[in-house]
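Issue: ligand-bound run for DGJ - logging full I/O for the record.

Environment: standard queue, default settings, no custom constraints.

Inputs:
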Amino acid sequence: MPFGYRKLSMTASFSAAYRLDGANVTMVVEVIAGTPAVRYWGPRLPDDLVLEELSALAARAEANASPAVEAPLAFTPQAGQGFPGRPGLAAHRGGLDWASYALLVDVEQGASRLAFTSRDEAHGIELVHELRLLGDVLAATTKLINRGTAALQVDHLAPPVIPLPGFVGEVIGFEGRWSGEFQLRRHQLSMGSWLRENRRGRTSHDAFPGLFAIERDANETRGLAYGFHLGWSGNHRLVVETLADGRRSVAMEALYLPGEIMLAPGEGLETPVIYSTVSDAGLGGVSRQFHAYLRARPEHQRLRAKPRPVHYNSWEAVYFDHDTAKLMALAERAAAVGVERFVLDDGWFGSRRSDRAGLGDWQVSPDVYPEGLGPLIEKVRSLGMEFGLWVEPEMANPDSDLYCAHPEWVLATPPAPKIPFRHQLALDFGRAEVRERMYLDVAALLEEYPIAYLKWDMNRDLSQPGGADGRAGATAHVKGLYEVLDRLRAAFPAVEIESCASGGGRADFGVLARTDRVWTSDSNDALDRLSIQRGFSHFFPAELMGAHVGPTRCHITGRQLSMPLRVATALFGHMGIEADLGELDAQETADLAAGVALHKAHRALIHSGALHRIDAAEGVNAFAIVAEDGSEALVSYTMVEEQRGYFAEPLRLAGLDPAADYELKVVWPPRLKAEWPLRDGGRFRGAALMQAGFQPPRLHPGTALIFHLKR
Ligand code: DGJ
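Outputs:
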């Protein structure tokens, strides 16, 4: 098949099926009652399968007390078709034209792409559903065009709704809080809806726009699992609906506030992209397919072009207490332990001596840096490091020159008083003049200084997102942000940008289309980080995951964890350090330097290998990163809690070449105290390591081992 699709028995009435294939997945789209719908989304089907078999297998008789013919669960389930569940589109013109009944009028087929146009002349509605298969990941959007003669108010519009087989009965949601992002929570599905809404205006810490849906007993390595994600950095709604007739589906959409979307005649609205993939190799299979998709994107290639530089970030060392001499001394210590990029965090500009003032004034503070940032940057570069800078352009402190000059530039809902939130207000990026000003301010910095990296932060919710004309402006803000980021990237293509929002509050494929790294969480507590990073890894690969070695006593949890553990956790991401290096003792400094060296020795593998999370014993966190060709692997094994028995369970590895022999070596920690027959390593067959596993040593809680395996 030249284009990766197959069209069957096409007739004028579109009674056809269309097929998209990846290496591991197949999607079959069928036209049912005049509307396109997913007939099959699952593991790869045989090339020669006659697709009509799928409809024959799914055919159902008339149900009791039900319509004679079921209304289709189409890409956009429609009120006008009598769909008994949640419609994919809710729109009207002053209460009229609400029952859309758009029928297919055109199908376009391209390489791994299908586009279906449906029209409802009576209600002036056109829908275009576009599906692309990128590797094994489906990326799909819905576009609505107002073909009527009056404005159309859109209450919601979902990208194509995707049915789930009835035997997929469990949802895993990703929830959390500041400093505790990406926590998994399992939910059994029952009749009705599993609903998660986010109205914080940014992707959020507590309602990550993604979910897994799995069949009973699926785990990391086995069973059917689906992954879904909405590539959008604002308000969203995730719905998994189970109808009384047993049909089940996933809808993910941008959440529009009242009146936020009003389409003039001829105007269109395109949804954010819903991403989905499916695997019968369990949750791990889904994650690896998401990772492969992200890694194959054109915008990812620049990250592969050079090793991801090890960071030093000034935040937890100095907070707002900037002093050039101290920062230069930190830069020297950072370079000495192997850092390659020095990032100057919050506090360098305007009157920003605390979080109460200065946001919005993006001029270097003459009080703190009388000669500008030049001397510090020169020092950093003379030590062989790149320089990075923190900014938060979407915000203003009321105590700032910017706010005094333009109090009308912030989002607000008068007469309600503005809700305090870290002493700052959100600028309205829906306004062209705000976007222009922030673009110019950031561009001026990039033009003046050799800045390799921007940490783009965003530290409050859009709690009262009223825009200039009094209308809700949350969606316009996100689109405005995307526009400014795109413009900066076009003008300064070499500058990397990090997406940070009080840690991991803005991690999604939408913002990642214009950024290069996510600040995963403000928590540098190595044990908390293990679960945060594990959650994050369900969607994102290691090279996008900012992971820093924190101070001896974690500033957020107050917990004191050893340097070898802190290194072992940070080493598996885009590694960095965020601590006052002057406070570390000689042993900690030596261990840190050894950890950075270990990361550098293996970062090519960490940043390109296939992640295999391991279903280890309770209280143990384990995973392997295996080279694409199976030639080597790095295995992380952390004792999080004391074990009940004398010994931990054997650890079964995953992802190795079963037929190959591997040389196993313990490469971390630098001083392993435990008595253990395998401490000097050995040579083992991949099949034995995966089927029988090996006996780990007895370890204190808070101890991590890293193994290297070489074929
Ligand atoms: C929140 C970020 O997550 C931190 O890393 C730090 O940059 C602070 N903001 C600075 O205000």
